[in-house]
């Protein structure tokens, strides 16, 4: 079973890219982030024609998350991260697919830091950790996949010395990610590739992709029951090189 996560950076603007990638790789389940589309503008029919069912939570101009499945029923569990009824951002969606609980997330960027946006990021991360602990307590095979907007360690960022004051790399952000690991979640990429340089995002500016000046900010965290089933993981880096593509590349895992 292949599960992927992909920050599409506007689902309608990148729809030809998304459909091309789906046709090429045929993942069973996909978490999408940054739809940048209101609920009724999600391209449901185009994805259905490509063989994918979908649930989604849109938002005008920004954010937005979705879960796609190829020929598998999606049973939605929630479309808001618990813990703050005042939070109106579309950043989390959760469903059960083929016996696996799938949480798709788009964690806040948090810049500039320090400041209100960084405070919101850390508060959101705290809510995620609490919900993640509740999910572990359920004991079901579970994954939390998406754009976490955090580089966990120095090998996850090109020239880390340039990022020390950025919200994606500040000690508080990295500590929040480590807290998830300490709860019992497994970083899928690092389980299989503990020391390799692997990136999932390359900025549009300064020929970042051509220079391979990237960041690893899109992650799969797996519950213990799912971590045991991990057989493969990788990044479809070449998709970042396509014309009019997202600044993220799709990331995937294989489960037995």
TrEMBL record:
InterPro entries in the cross-refs: AP_endonuc_1, AP_endonuclease_F1_BS, Endo/exonu/phosph_ase_sf, Endo/exonuclease/phosphatase, ExoIII-like
Q: Which UniProt keywords apply?
A: Hydrolase, Magnesium, Manganese, Metal-binding
Q: How is the cofactor bound?
A: Probably binds two magnesium or manganese ions per subunit.
A Pfam family this chain is assigned to: Exo_endo_phos
Tell me the superkingdom of the source: Bacteria
A GO molecular function assigned to this protein is: metal ion binding
Residue numbers marked as site, Important for catalytic activity: 218
SUPFAM superfamilies found in the cross-reference section: DNase I-like
Q: What is this protein called?
A: Exodeoxyribonuclease-3
As for family, the record states:
Belongs to the DNA repair enzymes AP/ExoA family.
| GO annotation terms (biological process) | DNA repair
The organism that produces this protein has a lineage beginning with: Bacteria, Pseudomonadati, Bacteroidota, Sphingobacteriia, Sphingobacteriales
* Residues the entry annotates as binding Mg(2+): 7, 34, 147, 149, 247-248
Endonuclease/exonuclease/phosphatase domain location, by residue?
4-248
The UniProt site entry described as Interaction with DNA substrate is assigned to 248
| Residues annotated as the enzyme's active site | 106, 147, 248
């Amino acid at each position: 079973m292949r599960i992927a996560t992909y920050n599409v950076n506007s689902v309608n603007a990148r729809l030809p890219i998304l459909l091309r990638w789906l046709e090429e790789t045929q993942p069973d389940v996909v978490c999408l982030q940054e739809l940048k589309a209101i609920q009724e503008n999600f391209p449901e029919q185009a994805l259905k024609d490509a063989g994918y069912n979908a649930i989604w939570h849109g938002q005008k101009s920004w954010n937005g998350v979705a879960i796609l499945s190829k020929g598998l029923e999606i049973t939605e569990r929630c479309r808001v991260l618990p813990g703050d009824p005042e939070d109106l951002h579309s950043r989390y969606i959760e469903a059960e697919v083929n016996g696996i609980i799938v949480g798709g997330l788009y964690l806040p960027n948090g810049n500039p830091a320090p400041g209100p946006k960084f405070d919101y990021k850390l508060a959101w991360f705290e809510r995620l950790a609490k919900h993640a602990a509740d999910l572990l307590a359920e004991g079901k095979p579970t994954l939390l996949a998406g754009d976490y907007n955090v580089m966990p360690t120095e090998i996850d960022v090109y020239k880390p010395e340039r990022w020390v004051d950025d919200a994606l790399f500040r000690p508080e952000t990295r500590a929040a990610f480590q807290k998830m690991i300490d709860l019992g979640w497994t970083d899928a990429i690092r389980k299989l590739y503990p020391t390799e340089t692997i990136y999932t995002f390359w900025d549009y500016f300064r020929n970042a992709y051509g220079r391979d000046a990237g960041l690893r900010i899109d992650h799969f965290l797996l519950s213990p029951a799912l971590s045991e089933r991990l057989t493969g993981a990788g990044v479809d880096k070449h998709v970042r090189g396509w014309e009019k593509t997202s600044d993220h590349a799709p990331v995937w895992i294989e489960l037995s």
